[in-house]
Amino acid sequence: MKGITFNRISREPLGEVEVFNLTNKAKATSNNKGEFLIEAKRNDVLIFKLAGYQPDTVLLINLSPLRRYLSADINSLNTVNISGERDIRKEYAQSFNKANAFVLKQGRGLIFHPSLYFSKEGRNARRFVRMLKSDEKQKVVDRVYNLKVISKMFPLQQPELDAFYLTYKPTIKFVKRLSAEDFKLYLEDSYRKFKLLPPEKRVLPKLK
After folding, report:
1. d(CA 208, CA 206)
2. Which one is predicted more confidently, 44 or 97?
3. Which of 3, 82, 111, 112 has its CA 20 to 30 A from that of 57?
4. 5 DSSP assignment
5. Where in the chain are the domains?
6. More reliable by pLDDT, 38 or 141
7. CB 43 within 8 A of CB 152
8. pLDDT at residue number 91
9. Is the confidence at residue 84, as pLDDT, over 90?
10. Considering the entire predicted model, what is its pTM?
11. Alpha helix (H) ranges present in the chain?
């Protein structure tokens, strides 16, 4: 299957990303355009690693071209200012407007513009908006579950830190339904389970 890797913030392609298929042990490296090609099938698990970035993992539901956005490892950031949450509807207002073919007209209600809906520009805008919304949802997890949070709670060092992060990474739905205290208990329970694993299970398979 084919795919492209990007920096989550700048949206620039990332080269030299190591892509490892945890299921069949296949491996690949992205080129300077972020493109990679790897042997895979449905339900395989891919791992993405690049120095200075948090590892990423994905379960392949289908074999459509894959786009992965890697987040910089907060422990390696020296000059980045962290601000409040982004308002993507304001930041990308033009794209949201193009993605919506319905316009509210005073006295006429919602007016459908088929030329906008079926145009290439409209389709691209809707695709981009879906990507933005997916990105924002993933950040719900990233804000509460990242390498810095794990390192503060538990005495884990690499390579066990990456293995724990990928093994127990929660879903967005799971994070949203737990209180802060319940999520802390989940992490503590996961750590106890992790320490009971044999040493060879507490590290990720090496990329050969």
Report:
1. 6
2. 44
3. 82
4. E
5. 1-73, 88-138, 145-208
6. 38
7. no
8. 46
9. no
10. 0.42
11. 88-91, 93-99, 114-118, 120-144, 147-153, 160-167, 172-177, 180-196
